[in-house]
């Protein structure tokens, strides 16, 4: 990518293992020591309920070989944030204010992470 050999390509960068959003939310919540607050509704007609990213293009074009699974990646990300949290004013981090999925111009708000 840096050398400009690959341009105008959509490439999946993932681990190649499927996980649900619920699982990801539970893992993140566990790492920061809280319970996830989720509203789970039935799937909509035609909604994709299971997806595993196809890494073949990333492997072919970039020589991509994933090394970090989701659980380890979440743990590392939370540890990095805790180590670097001084970069965030008043122990707060940005969160999207609109989670409805209907607006693409969601306001950015701030949520305190004082308990983490």
* Overall shape: extended
Straight-line N-to-C gap: 36 Å
Q: In order across it, which strands form the biggest sheet?
A: 1-2
Instruction: Report the count of strand segments.
Output: 2
Overall CATH class of the largest domain:
Alpha Beta
Helix content: 25-40%
The CATH superfamily name of the largest domain is UDP-galactose 4-epimerase, domain 1
Radius of gyration based on Cα positions: 17 Å
**CATH fold annotation of the largest domain:** UDP-galactose 4-epimerase, domain 1
The biggest sheet, with number of strands, parallel, antiparallel or mixed sense and barrel status, is: 2 strands, antiparallel
Tally of helical segments: 3
Mean pLDDT: 78
CATH architecture of the largest domain: Alpha-Beta Complex
Write up what this structure looks like.
- The structure is a single chain.
- The termini are far apart.
- 28% of the residues lie in helices and 9% in strands.
- It has helices at residues 21-32, 56-62, 70-83; strands spanning 92-96, 108-112.
- It has 3 helices and 2 strands.
- Helix 1 (21-32) packs parallel to helix 3 (70-83).
- The chain has 2 domains: 1-83, UDP-galactose 4-epimerase, domain 1, CATH 3.90.25; 89-116, no CATH class.
């Amino acid at each position: 990518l840096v050398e400009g050999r690959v341009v105008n390509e959509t490439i999946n960068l993932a681990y190649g293992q499927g996980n649900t959003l619920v699982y990801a939310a539970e893992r993140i919540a566990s790492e920061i020591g809280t319970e996830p607050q989720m509203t789970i509704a039935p799937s909509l007609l035609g909604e994709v309920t299971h997806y595993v990213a196809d890494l073949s293009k990333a492997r072919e074009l970039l020589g991509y070989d994933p090394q970090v699974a989701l659980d380890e990646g979440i743990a590392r990300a939370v540890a990095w944030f805790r180590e670097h949290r001084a970069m965030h004013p008043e122990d707060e981090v940005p969160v999207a204010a609109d989670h409805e999925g209907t607006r693409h111009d969601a306001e950015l708000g701030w949520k305190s992470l004082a308990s983490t």
